[in-house]
């Protein structure tokens, strides 16, 4: 997805491709891996650790969501990093 935004100016076909990939990812994650994190976190540890593991994983999830949502405008917009769609290279590298 980040590679589609590299050429300047970005063609309309590339913009449509980025939107389509974003929608496909959101639907796939929401229906697939997204809800499974809560199941895995509560079922893998021992019964006595279930509450603590759920609590810690929820706190880590909330913190990481805050971190991404706080830094994303600075990475995208012009007065700061102005990476625009190239920010996908950063998040893609982290995801691997």
Automatic annotation (TrEMBL):
Gene Ontology MF terms in the entry: carbohydrate:proton symporter activity
Q: Which InterPro entries match?
A: MFS_sugar_transport-like, MFS_Sugar_Transporters, MFS_trans_sf
Annotated compartments: Membrane
Q: How does it sit in the membrane?
A: Multi-pass membrane protein
Could you list this entry's UniProt keywords, alphabetically sorted.
Membrane, Sugar transport, Transmembrane, Transmembrane helix, Transport
Entry's transmembrane regions: 20-44, 56-76
Database matches in Pfam families: Sugar_tr
A GO cellular-component term linked to this record? membrane
Matches recorded under PANTHER family: PLASTIDIC GLUCOSE TRANSPORTER 4
UniProt-recorded name of the protein? Sugar transporter
Lineage of the native species?
Eukaryota, Fungi, Dikarya, Ascomycota, Pezizomycotina
């Amino acid at each position: 997805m980040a590679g589609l935004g590299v050429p300047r100016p970005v063609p309309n076909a590339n913009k449509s491709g980025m939107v389509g990939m974003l929608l496909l990812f959101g639907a796939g994650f929401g229906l697939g891996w997204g809800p499974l994190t809560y199941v895995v976190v509560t079922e893998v540890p021992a019964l006595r650790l279930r509450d603590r593991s759920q609590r810690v994983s929820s706190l880590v999830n909330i913190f990481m969501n805050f971190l991404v949502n706080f830094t994303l405008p600075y990475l995208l917009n012009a007065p700061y990093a102005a990476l625009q769609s190239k920010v996908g290279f950063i998040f893609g590298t982290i995801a691997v």
